[in-house]
Amino acid sequence: xxxxxxxxxxxxxxxxxxxxxxxxxxxxxxxxxxxxxxxxxxxxxxxxxxxxxxxxxxxxxxxxxxxxxxxxxxxxxxxxxxxxxxxxxxxxxxxxxxxxxxxxxxxxxxxxxxxxxxxxxxxxxxxxxxxxxxxxxxxxxxxxxxxxxxxxxxxxxxxxxxxxxxxxxxxxxxxxxxxxxxxxxxxxxxxxxxxxxxxxxxxxxxxxxxxxxxxxxxxxxxxxxxxxxxxxxxxxxxxxxxxxxxxxxxxxxxxxxxxxxxxxxxxxxxxxxxxxxxxxxxxxxxxxxxxxxxxxxxxxxxxxxxxxxxxxxxxxxxxxxxxxxxxxxxxxxxxxxxxxxxxxxxxxxxxxxxxxxxxxxxxxxxxxxxxxxxxxxxxxxxxxxxxxxxxxxxxx
Length: 396
Hints:
The chain is mainly α. The protein has a single domain, classed as MFS general substrate transporter like domains (Growth Hormone, Chain: A), CATH 1.20.1250.20. It is built from 16 helices and no strands. Helix 2 (11-33) packs across helix 9 and helix 7 (103-131) packs across helix 16 (340-392). The longest helix has 53 residues, at 340-392. The chain is globular, with a radius of gyration of 20 Å.
């Protein structure tokens, strides 16, 4: 059965499947990551302001917020079909932005890339959640989330050199090629699930949930925590490139190299999550990460006067953020297992909504108070998330 995929397939097939998911997510996450440090270069290439370029990211995040629809479809029709749909959208969006001569076409491309995350991520998370026992899920999710760090560690520095050599569109052609490889590999190497459990779906009305365990108090609060965490991170991340350019005069290629520091922090965080979360307990690990993340945001403007201090502060904020958000995934995955696809999709949607909100307010907060104000606002978001976790979420 699908719920015992990891235990019942050949060991080599299982490892190959997880490797395909990891490599495919590197391409998907790269299309998200590559925009942040190079947003000023992209805005200059399109001949628009930084705030207008931020609206492209808002559109991408807004489309990603439709992921609950795709989560429900994955509960009813299977995970693999939705994963493939997301990869088709990735290839189309990245290829389009590679040739986009106008703001309008760039907007369509960003919408397609938002659709790729909306479709692929919740289906993939439910795919793994169905397959892996809860006691080991922290380790597996932590390892798969290395795709975020690897997309930054490998992809963003390479994108910086590509932009310097061939223009701002060049990285998106590479992403489109990686998407094609991921599409073929997923088709050939990821086993097809049987139809998901039907307990949560009415046989006479397949589009209507018989019950909605994802509306429980604990589930709603857990989803709010993920949204607040991403809002805090995005609020600083979206002005990261402008801050580095203004404060230290870094060129785009130097920004790519400086970004290696962030990727290494994330690599440490995701590896730590894989090694510690199952041992500590999911809720306890998340709470510890949240409190450290608050302290990191408060510390950031105090040590950001030099390039070394700025990189140290950014490293600490991203390390604590990434540990917290990765540790949330296995916790959320078991809050309503009957509708796991829908819950994981709602989690993705909440994070996308957090990105959309902060992509609107982040540049405006920056315009008012620059880094100290962005950091203070982010600390407030994470402190609120800590309170919500303490009050409203218990581990099943």
